[in-house]
Amino acid sequence: MTNTTHTREKDLVRYFIIIYWSLFWLLNVADKIIGGAHLLFVGRDRFAQVERFFDSIGLENPVFANIALVITAGLEIFALVFFVGALYYHLTKNRESTRSWFLVGVGFSLATFTFFSIGDQVFGDHFELLEHGLFWFIALLSWVVFTGLDRIPLPNQVGVTAKQRNAFLAATIVSALVITASIFYHNHTSFVERTQAVAVEQITEDTYKIQFPFLAGSTAFENSLEKFLSENPTLHIDNIYTAPKPLRLGKSDGLIIYIQTVSKQ
Amino acid sequence: MKESKLIQYLILIHWLFFAGTTALDKLIPDVYPLWVGADFYTLFVKLFASLGIKDPIFATIALAGVSIVEIVAFTSFLLALVLLIRKNTKSAEQWFSRGILTSLILFSLFSIGDQVFGDRFTLLEHGIFWCILLISWVVFLYIGNTESNNVNLAPSTSLRLTVIAGVVLTVITSISIFSFSSSTWDTKNTPVSGAEITNGMYKFDFPFLGDKETLESTLKAFKTEHPELKVNYIYTGPSELNTKKKTHMLLYVFTEKIKP
After folding, report:
1. What's the pLDDT at A2?
2. Does residue A244 have a cis bond before it (omega within 30 degrees)?
3. DSSP summary character for residue B248
């Protein structure tokens, strides 16, 4: 293979990197513009999250959360526009400008994640600190790969034999058919579990157990209790105990509740 | 400005704030106005107690030791930043390396502790930070010692257009943020209305802004609306029942009619 082909491959990797970061920030900005859960977009209620953070440090007035969100959105938007600029210059084959615009995009990304990390320490959220630390690292690594690609020796392609191609196609098609059939069958038999009332098992004279399937949501829970109460009109629910995770079998048990009842008489 | 300098500044500033806020978290050990942080003292006392070492002096010594290492890392990064600003690059690299080495030692100690105390999630967290530190150090030194391009954002018309687009988008997003904030802020203090699921069982779907005060006002409003009912039991819907991320908290209230 010629060097030109390798240049094309390396350019393709650069497209992936720029497009990834452009979409990353575009969706983050969209999440802030949309706000709240809507049809076809749930996103994250950042206002509620940030307001609760500020409330926890004694700043209940929503203006603090709003200002923090505006600063965050500004950093994200500038990262986005510079990545879009890098994409434009990459499309027009202006390598020097692509590199500079991409760098400024990465710079805004790194600054954004540093800003988030400071907030995570102040608000004491170490899970978010890990998340933002990882994204900071990914942004830095993206820059290293983007600029260092020219120094990576890509292997020459050796072509595909007819035997390899046929074996690949046969294995892929058979596996895809089996898995797709299995998924559709599971949907056909199990989707009803999402809302269907679950059978109640009596454990002691006044204690009952309901073991929910993984698909069950709040409607299944409500339907189950409604069915239980209609089948047992002489009882009323005194207490519901949720089996804690240590009592469940690893990942094989879903939600389990125990209903403690008393007789209405 | 050289590309390498920009990246070096961004790396250094990140670790400076990281070490600085971590050390500050030890200086402010509890929840105060403008600072929540993590309660490391409680964490250390509980971890040592789980080993059978109940005397708080051991946890205190360990925490003080950790804080000293963090302060050494912070001052090393601070010095490195000052030297980098003064264009004394070689010394800056040396102090940055010292800060990184100190931080690596700290995360290695944390990882040993995590194994001893059996905390696998924190082990993962410290392992990841250890790796990020190491790679940051490699990148910092590598880009500082290789040929580097100047940041070139020419032509200026493109840059001007990009900045205008950025400002316009920021204004649009800010309007949206303020409008969303003013339209949802009321839900924080407004009682949630309940829906009767079955005879005597009510469901309350709390908004994301809802907190303990929302719960209390909801219960008060419910009692006022239903003077004929007695609340027998309140059940918090476990997370398994929530539609992923869409629901904040579900609350079920079980009632019965007050007997005359």
Report:
1. 45
2. no
3. S
A77, B162: Cβ pair inside 8 Å? no
d(CA B32, CA B24): 13
User: Looking up tokens 């500079």, which residue turns up?
Assistant: A100
Q: Which of A36, A78, A229 sits opposite B180 (nearest CB)?
A: A36
Tokens encoding A110: 């790194």
- Tokens, residue A238: 């005194």
Residues A208, B125: Cα–Cα separation, whole Å: 41
Instruction: Tally DSSP H helices, then E strands, for chain B.
Output: 7, 4
pLDDT tens for chain B, residues 1 to 260: 899 999 999 999 999 999 999 999 999 988 889 999 999 999 999 999 999 999 999 999 999 999 999 999 999 999 999 999 999 999 999 999 999 999 999 999 999 999 999 999 999 999 999 999 999 999 999 998 888 888 888 778 999 999 999 999 999 999 999 999 999 998 888 999 999 998 889 999 998 888 899 999 999 999 999 999 999 999 999 988 876 666 788 999 999 888 77
The answer, for A146 touching chain B at a CB cutoff of 8 Å, is no
Query: Are B180 and A35 an interchain contact pair (Cβ–Cβ within 8 Å)?
Result: yes
d(CA B236, CA B240): 11
Q: Which residue of A122, A247, A261 to mutate against B (max B Cβ within 10 Å)?
A: A122
Per-residue pLDDT, averaged over A257-261, amounts to 96
Lowest-confidence pick of A146-155, A214-223, B35-44, B65-74: A146-155
Chain B residue numbers with beta carbons less than 8 Å from the beta carbon of A222 are 197-198, 201, 203
What's the pTM? 0.91
**What is the rounded distance in angstroms from the CA atom of residue B168 to the CA atom of residue A29?**
13
Two structure tokens written together for B126? 């410290």
Q: Chain B within 8 Å of A218 (Cβ-Cβ)?
A: yes
- Closest in A33, A80, A100 to B151, CB measured: A100
**CB-CB contact of B21 with A118 (8 Å):** yes
| pLDDT value of position B44 | 94
Check CB contact under 8 Å for B232 and A238.
Answer: yes
Answer whether the bond into residue A213 is a cis peptide, omega within 30°.
no
Partner A contacted by B184 (CB < 8 A): yes
Q: Work out the pLDDT band at A5, boundaries 50, 70, 90.
A: low
Enter the ipTM. 0.91
Contact: B129, A130; criterion CB under 8 Å: yes
B204 bridge partner residues: B251
pLDDT for B189: 84
Measured CA distances, B80 to A232, B13, B90 (Å) = 73, 10, 10
Residue type, position A75, single letter: L
| Phi, psi values for residue B118, rounded to 5° | 70, 30
Contact (CB<8Å) A51/B209: yes
SS3 content of chain B, % helix, strand, coil (to 5): 65, 10, 25
Contact pairs from chain A to chain B, CB under 8 Å: 209
